[in-house]
Amino acid sequence: MLTSHQITYYKTFGFLILRDLLNPDEIGEINFEFESKLKNTLRSTTTPGHHKYVSWPNLGPDTPFTGSLLEDNRICIIAKQLLGSEFFGISCNSGSFVNDTQWHPDCEDINLHALKFAFYLQSLNADNGAIRFIPGSHHNPFHEILLRNNLRGERPDNVSAHICGVNPGDGIIFDARLWHGSSGGSEDRRLITLIYNRVPETIAEKEATFYDAKGSCRTRENLAKNTYKSPSLEYHPKWISNEHKDDRRQKWIDWIKTFKYLR
């Protein structure tokens, strides 16, 4: 569990780094599953030498260990502490990034309460693509000032930011509204992400969640088409079937359906 100091730090700055959250054996399992999926992407099979960002979901039988992280109690306890209410997991995805990532928040609507866990599979620093955060940019008016001034058009290394140097096993947690980017990355920067939403408590939060789901579905569909010739579903039927009748997973599935992350 997080300390009160860590929770205050996260709420103030919008991010937190937890060293060695996953052990070397667990990183080995993730790397094995990652490599088995990457070698079948369009980037690997049809366009050799042409590097393009690729991404895929892990809630299926091909990636059992990686997918299990979404429901890992070490992570869920932290998500509950930070979201401060009932929450639900919505995705566990892998991605192989290419070069720079422009400045952006994962969510522009200040009314959405969501967070992301990020696990990079390489050691990263300021020179080779470590994620950069603009501390406090998940709060208004700062958040909306950056939207109005089109920060997306700025080079990632031209903006003062906190650079998160990490090693495999370190976990980065950040608010979905926090502005972030990266500079100097390679053509295969490997990342596992887990996303959790707070169950909306107000009309504004509900509207923001529905809007996020709409954008998320559109983005994931486009990424799937660009990644595999025959892409798998974001939510594998085996995961949705909840064959072991896990109460928490069933709650999550119900919320995922309610807010139309699953259509």
Question: What do you see in this structure?
Answer:
With 263 residues, this protein is an alpha+beta fold. The chain has one domain (4-258): Sandwich (Jelly Rolls). It is 36% helix and 20% strand. The protein is built from nine helices and ten strands. The protein has helices spanning 4-13, 24-38, 42-45, 64-68, 73-83, 142-148, 203-227, 237-241, 247-258, and strands spanning 15-18, 54-57, 87-97, 101-104, 114-120, 131-133, 162-163, 171-175, 180-182, 189-198. Strands 1-8-5-10-3-2 form a six-stranded antiparallel sheet.
Write the layout of secondary structure elements.
Layout: H1 4-13, E1 15-18, H2 24-38, H3 42-45, E2 54-57, H4 64-68, H5 73-83, E3 87-97, E4 101-104, E5 114-120, E6 131-133, H6 142-148, E7 162-163, E8 171-175, E9 180-182, E10 189-198, H7 203-227, H8 237-241, H9 247-258
Antiparallel strand pairs: 1-8, 2-3, 3-10, 4-9, 5-8, 5-10, 6-7, 6-9
Short description:
By secondary structure, the protein is α+β, with helices and mostly antiparallel strands. Helix content is 36%, strand content 20%.
Please tell me the overall pLDDT.
Answer: 94
User: How big a fraction of the residues is strand?
Assistant: 15-25%
How many strand elements? 10
CA-atom Rg in angstroms: 18 Å
The number of helical runs is: 9
Largest sheet: 6 strands, antiparallel
